[in-house]
Write a structure and sequence with these properties.
The chain is an all-alpha fold and 194 residues long. It folds into two domains: 52 residues, Homeodomain-like (Arc Repressor Mutant, subunit A), CATH 1.10.10; 137 residues, Tetracycline Repressor, domain 2, CATH 1.10.357.10. It contains nine helices and no strands. The longest helix has 27 residues.
Length: 194
C-alpha cells in the first residue's frame, strides 16, 4: 500500500472540514450523515472515517479550525501600527470569514444544553476562542500596542463578546456600516493605549 504524505493528509482533512461545515450548515448537525459529507467531496464513507472517527470528532475539528482562524485574524490585524486600521481589518475579516460558520455555531449552542458531548464541544470551543484572542492581546500588550490597564483574559472576554455581536448584527440584518463603525469605536475605547 502506498504511503500517504502528511501534506496530502492535511489537505484532505481541510477539504473534509470545509465540506462538513457546508453540509452541517444546510442540513443541521443531527440530520447530516457522514455519508452526506463524503458525497459532498466525492469520497467513500470509509475514507471519511479514516480521517474522522465520528461526526462529533469532525465537529470538534471544525471548532478548532474556526478558533485558529479567529486567532490568526487578531494576530495579523494587530501587526498594523494604525489601531483604527487594525480594528477595521478585524471587523471585515470576521464579517467575511467567521460569519460563514454562524449557522453551525448557533446550532451547537442550541444543542449544548441537551447533549453533553455537544455541550463539551461548545465549552471547549469558547475556551479555545478566548485563548486565541487572549494570546494575541497579551502579545500586543507586551509590545505596548494596546492598553495593559486590564488583564488580557478580561479583555479577551470583552472582545469575544463583541465578535459575537458582529455575527448577531449580520444575522438579524442590522445596518452593517453602523455596526462596523460601532465595532471600531468600541474596540478603540477598550484596547487603545491612552
Amino acid at each position: 500500500m502506498p504511503k500517504v504524505l502528511p501534506e496530502y493528509k492535511e489537505l484532505v482533512k481541510s477539504k473534509i472540514i470545509e465540506a462538513a461545515l457546508k453540509v452541517f450548515s444546510l442540513k443541521g448537525f443531527y440530520a447530516t450523515r457522514m455519508l452526506d459529507i463524503a458525497k459532498k467531496i466525492g469520497m467513500s464513507k470509509a475514507t471519511l472515517y479514516f480521517y474522522f472517527k465520528s461526526k462529533e470528532d469532525l465537529l470538534r475539528m471544525i471548532s478548532i479550525t474556526i478558533n485558529q482562524k479567529l486567532g490568526e485574524i487578531f494576530r495579523m490585524s494587530f501587526e498594523w501600527n494604525n489601531f483604527a486600521a487594525a480594528a477595521e481589518i478585524i471587523y471585515d475579516r470576521i464579517a467575511d470569514e467567521v460569519i460563514l460558520q454562524l449557522p453551525i455555531g448557533l446550532e451547537i449552542l442550541s444543542l449544548a444544553s441537551r447533549d453533553e458531548t455537544i455541550g463539551k464541544i461548545a465549552r471547549d470551543d469558547r475556551e479555545q476562542g478566548l485563548a486565541a484572542i487572549q494570546s494575541s492581546l497579551q502579545h500586543q500588550m507586551d509590545n505596548g500596542r494596546i492598553t495593559n490597564a486590564m488583564d488580557a483574559h478580561i479583555l479577551a472576554q470583552l472582545v469575544l463578546g463583541l465578535c459575537w455581536d458582529i455575527m448577531l448584527q449580520q444575522l438579524i440584518g442590522s445596518d452593517q456600516s453602523l455596526a462596523r463603525e460601532n465595532w471600531i469605536n468600541l474596540l478603540t475605547v477598550i484596547l487603545e493605549p491612552q
